[in-house]
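[job 4471] stage=fold_predict status=RUNNING
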Amino acid sequence: MGRSGVCTAIKARFGVNKKQADVPDLLQIEGGLNSGVSRKVSQQTGVPEAQVYGVGSFFDLLTDTDKKVRVCTGLSCRMAGADQVLQAMVDAGLPAMGCSCLAACDRPPAVLRDRDVLPAVSVEDVVRADGDWTRLLPEIVSSGNLGHVGPEVDDPDTMAINLLGQADWSGKAFAKAAKMRPEEIIEKIEMSGLQGRGGAGFSASFKWNAVCSEKETTRYVVLNGDESEPGTFKDREILMRRPDLVVEGLAIAAYKIGARDVYLYLRGEFAFPKAVMTKAIAEFESHNIFPDIRFHMHSGQGAYICGEETALLEALEGKRGMPRLRPPYPTEYGLWGKPTLIHNVETIACVPSIISRGGDWFRNLGRTEAGSKVYCISGHVKRPGVYELPLGVTLDELVEEAGGYIGTPKAFSPGGASSGFLPAKYRDQPLDFKTMDGLGSLLGSAGVVVLNDTVDIKWSVSQQLRFFHDESCGQCAPCRIGTRYLHEALENRICNREQGHNPHLQHAADVAWQMNEGSICGLGQIASLPLTSAQKFFPEEFDE
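[job 4471] inference complete, writing structure tokens
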């Protein structure tokens, strides 16, 4: 019996309670993890009360529900004054606390009010609220009121997908795919060279083929819309501006692998994108474009770790979002133990254009690797925002699109917190998967954060280490202990509690190796990169 066979046998022995999937939503409806709620939800679902409590206590948006206002403490927001905004709220008596990145890095500091993201909140806005959190800035994040978005593409023959343009509800790509043999669809995806746009850059066609090779005929497609990487906010704009591409891409994928059910997992702070996607699905369904496909919408409850695909599956099943041991992989044992195809928002949004225009067309869009890429850029640039450009442009070229640098560039993160820090001397290198990997970094989700020479590198590293410590699910010891060790070691250095020789920082490489080799998922494997990359490229800052 193979790995997936063993897992299937275990499921058959203990059964699958699909009502458990309702636990997070029911807890949200009840206002979070308050007194008596666990028992009520347990009675509604048949899930043991202790297990319900365990789920609720795992997710940020289901705990501390008395804190109606949360201020983003991501690097871009803190560089823009988030600490001062949070302190002003506390001083004014507002029910406020800090939180992880809200995917609004292009107009910092961002604030979450209930489930609405408010951009560019200032201390003056807090003063005007006069202690009433409901009066805090009426503007909420919607398409067009955040940072700059690259120009729309009007020429249908241009070398871009127009991932940031206006919706087109034609359904022509799916209609074309429906007339093709499944193997013809996969040939186009293979020819395109499409890599995952959510982080790892994994081959899309490999995933499709892996799911199709399974004997199990019940299969699922899952959209990973849990965009939580600090510095990343591209999926937010794609969901709001091109929901048609997302829905159509999901439908084509479902048709290819023989799935009838598609699950969309959007982060809980994406209230507006969720509304847009719900409307888009209804629009397609009203035209009976995908009659045999059922779409299911699910909101996350605030956990960065659920961006990891197996943790996301656990959350979809109504459990704590803790990564699974692999193998087996989701393509053989995914949602409810069935073969599952999981893709990031940008990845799936590329599919309709590949079907319509061909794999060669998409491959030739890129400069150094296949396709166009939606880059996010924030920090010390004049027009933070999202820009669709050929994959492989340099940082200088991207910043030129963003209006230029503010001050003298010192460092940048090419792929959000997970990618560490590179010195500005590499700003002429292609922002692609292979080049960034060769520099010891990651392109990841292409959440580029630029730091000028006014920023203390040690302070910046500390912010990223604190983030990973806060967001570690705690399942495995290397990550749970290692993230805390590294953050505390650097904080001791910054606060001058350890002068001169710092044995804890000297051991950082050893701790990083243990985390990389012993952690279950990618969080623990890359959590040390902000520190180790900064020590490599900015050693003088750690000798002060």
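[job 4471] summary: The radius of gyration is 23 Å.
[job 4471] exit 0
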